[in-house]
Amino acid sequence: PDRSFSGRRALVTGAGKGIGRAAALALSGAGAQVIALSRTQADLQSLEGTGIETLCVDLGDWDATEAALSKVGAIDLLVNNAAVSVLQPFLEVTKEAFDRSFDVNLRAVFHVSQIIARQMIARGVQGVIVNISSQASQRALQDHAVYCSTKSALDMLTKVMALELGPHKIRVNSVNPTVVMTDMGRINWSEPQKAAAMISRIPLRKFAEVDDVVNSILFLLSDKSAMTTGVSLPVDGGFLVS
Ligand code: NDP
């Protein structure tokens, strides 16, 4: 078996469900010591017996996040995956949806990354950060004004973090998937006509699988991408070139 991440400690946010959960399990399977952070205790409890450590906190809560991360210990690999998608027509966007989305999808990435990058620098390790963005960062999608805005900002944050953390030997990249049928994907894309319209715009004519995204996350976390920083890697079947 591939044990290429042995000796590394990884923190994955939003690891209770979906892509984050699969990434946490894959990293653990490849030898990393994994800390799965999420919001719902039951999801984390279901990871018991896998050897994965868990941390239950709402990343929308700044102070609770800081308190939780103070106990997390040394981290070499960080996956900023937690996000919410609240779809509303632009004219009906609420303050609550705006604030919650930016707090979780963007502000928490700043905060978690600051805390982890500071201790990576203090320890002198060659840390790696992967942010989970979306094709929605680079294309306008109906009812996605808030979500697209958070992910577009996340792509730029990825670049500035790469610029400033590079001299400390920390790499920062994002993966930008098309639709994946996780809970988030099912809520937003189960309507057959809506799904068919999206699939018709994807050159490979299908949505991404969770494993497609996880494989790209692991590549960007690994030494196989040692000279790559500041990029957004599409996992989109070609949507962004269509
Ligand atoms: P899911 O909704 O299936 O899972 C998201 C996970 O993040 C859940 O465990 C959720 O916990 C957790 N989470 C959400 N908010 C918080 C919070 N405030 N604090 C802590 N944990 C939180 O989403 P996906 O797996 O589909 O998405 C993962 C990433 O991939 C996201 O960044 C998303 O934007 C991105 N993405 C997804 C696509 C898709 O079509 N699915 C397409 C492109 C990008 P809980 O359920 O308890 O709130």
From TrEMBL:
Gene behind the chain: DCXR
GO molecular function: carbonyl reductase (NADPH) activity; identical protein binding; L-xylulose reductase (NADPH) activity; oxidoreductase activity, acting on NAD(P)H, quinone or similar compound as acceptor
Keyword Aminoacyl-tRNA synthetase: no
Assembly: Homotetramer.
InterPro entries: L-xylulose/Carbonyl_redctase, NAD(P)-bd_dom_sf, Sc_DH/Rdtase_CS, SDR_fam
PANTHER family named among the record's database cross-references: D-ERYTHRULOSE REDUCTASE, D-ERYTHRULOSE REDUCTASE-RELATED
Record protein name field: Dicarbonyl and L-xylulose reductase
Source species of the chain: Chelonoidis abingdonii (Abingdon island giant tortoise)
CDD domains: XR_like_SDR_c (cd05351)
Family label: Belongs to the short-chain dehydrogenases/reductases (SDR) family.
PROSITE patterns cross-referenced by the UniProt entry: ADH_SHORT
Record's GO cellular component terms: cytoplasmic microtubule
KW Oxidoreductase (keyword) present: yes
Keyword annotations of the record: NADP, Oxidoreductase
